[in-house]
Design a protein that fits this description.
Layout (H helix, E strand, L loop, with lengths): L5 H6 L2 H9 L5 H8 L7 H17 L15 H8 L7 H23 L5 H8 L6 H9 L12 H31 L2 E9 L2 E7 L8 E6 L5 E6 H33 L2 H26 L6 E2 L5 E6 L2 H9 L7 E5 L5 E5 L6 H16 L11 E2 L4 E5 L12 H15 L4 E5 L8 H17 L3 E5 L3 H9 L3 E8 L6 E7 L7 H7 L4 H10 L2 H82 L2 H18 L5 H38 L12 E4 L6 E7 L2 E5 L4 E5 L3 E5 L2
Helix pairs in contact: 2-3, 3-11, 4-11, 5-11, 6-7, 6-11, 8-10, 9-10, 15-16, 19-20, 19-21
Length: about 725
Amino acid sequence: MIKIHKKTLQDLELPAVLKQVAEYAVTEIGRQNVLAIAPYPISVDAMMSLHEVHEYLSSFENENRIPNHGFDEITSDLKYLVIENTVLEIDGFRRISQTVSQTNALIKFFTKYKDYYPTLFTTASSLETNKDIIIEIEKVIDRFGEVKDDATDALFEIRKRLKSLRSKINSNFTKELNRYKSLGYLDDILESVHENKRVLAVKAMYRRKVKGSILGSSKTGSIVYIEPEATLQQQREINNLEFEEQEEINKILKELTNYIRVYHPLLQQYQDYLIGTDVIYAKSKYAQSIHATLPEISEKKEMHLIDAYHPLLYVNNRELNEETFPQTIGMSIDNRIIVISGPNAGGKSITLKTVGLLQLMIQSGLLVPVHERSKMCFFDRILSDIGDNQSIENHLSTYSYRLKQMNHFLKKCNANTLFLIDEFGTGSDPELGGALAEVFLEVFYDRNAFGIITTHYANLKLLASELPYMQNANMQFDERSLKPVFKLALGQAGSSFTFEVAQKNGIPFSLINKAKKKIERSKVRFDKTIAKLQKERSKLERTERSLKANEQKKIIETDKLEEVNARIQHKLERYQELYDSTQRLIYLGQKVDALAEKYFENDRKRELMAELFKIIQIENSKRKKIPKKEKKALKTDQLKTNREVKKQIEVIRKRKKAEKKKIDEAPKPKPVLKVGDHVRLEDGRAIGSIDKIEKNKAVVNYGKFTTTVNMDQLELVDQK
């Protein structure tokens, strides 16, 4: 049985996460149920909830989208059904019909796609579908929320009579309206509606001349509203019929309520199911927004979080457009307790809270923002001591409160417990508080409990390095800028960088040295050694990352070169085969040509045939018998090679053709024209001779006449 105290839920901020989840619920009752979520007391229920959310999340990305589950709450209607002789309102029947319809649709959907959503199908299949409720409601109430005329024969008859009477009233009213209008007794507006009745708008001076019942007057008193006498009797009949109509409607609704009352337990189940679906939907939408997933849930006590984000910090930083740093941390039976050290504002508390909050979320049926290869388990208890818990009401100091918490931890801690303690041992004298904290930690260790603590105490760091199933960890610091990098490094204690940070913030070096002298030399050396090791570790990690990146690049380049080399080798082999084949064909062609020449000279056909047959026999003796499949493949390969060669030849031909075209199209240098040369105009046919050249102009003699032309317009036909 899993038990987690409310104080732990508050410490790890689960209510704040639930508040964000609740924003995605589509109904008010769904939002309330989300806010009431707590870790499941039984791990089987938590597992089922996780699978439901995981399946619903997958529906957002596939074609089989889950139908809408929105509904109007029927809690008040269900309360009325329990009370005898109560009658539901028409809106109540509409809400019930909608609830039944939505539930039936979901049950039908999950039955159809049970292979896609096995867990959601299991939940839905526990309910039975019901169409009778919808049929009975639809017999009585139409889609506009009115009782149907044919709900009963009596109601049909009453409404028929009402319709007839209203028609007569309208007819009589129109007659009276026209009569008094012609007499000039009516105001310009002619008529109005008063107390849901049509009335004549009579001028005040003629009110005694119009027969009927006065129902009121205008604000100025110039108009009097009168119901004509001709419609009074019929209106009384309508009032009686309307009373009968309401009586009949009440009777019908009472019978319908009594019919539905039997289904009260089923309707309660339907609403609970739809509320549960809304909660699952809200969880799924929240998971989608923070990129959450379902990690592997181990039956053993082990946890390995890869790229884990604190969901609240992730959402907040995303809104501020700031980066959130993920953490990777693991615990198992062989590594049960982690002691995180390092400077303040380095992210120790956030790391601790991240682990605790994600554990609460997974045990509450919420997916978590981690890498999908992460692994988690369930704990029976999660104990936390985070922040300054000074209690004014109980007159407890911070340290007194923390001692009280430790006493509670000592009573509850066992192998199925996860404890989370921030700034372990603080609040008292460092020497004495550290010693007591060390004793507590040894007890938790001996009881095989799992836990994470943050501390600055050197004795706790030493204890973690000495005990086999306890591990040191530190929040890394940039040794140059002395700024946190918000990355957890397992296996080594962290320095608080007390003096380095002080120096960085402008504290005089003389004061820092004076402070160093006031504490034991061994402690300074110990902290200095840790700081030095941490710096070396940072350098090694940077070098390792660089080497890995280079190695990866080399592997990729090697693979590419090998692939290119293989392709080139294959092409060379094919070209060699093509070359050999071509040479053989040339050789055969030469032999056949020699025989043809010989036959041309001696005309001996038999000798020619014998020689040809001999050549064919020699060639066939060289051939190997190849199976049809291989022959076909070889032929295909040769065709491919031929095509590639042809393509390459075609490319070369095109290139040469283009080059030739460029040469042909290139403007040829114009010859220098001289006196006496035979020329013609560029666009003309007549040929003349140049008599004279002056200033880029030539005088051309055509025999019968001469003309002056620009030198650029002339073409040389023949030089002198």
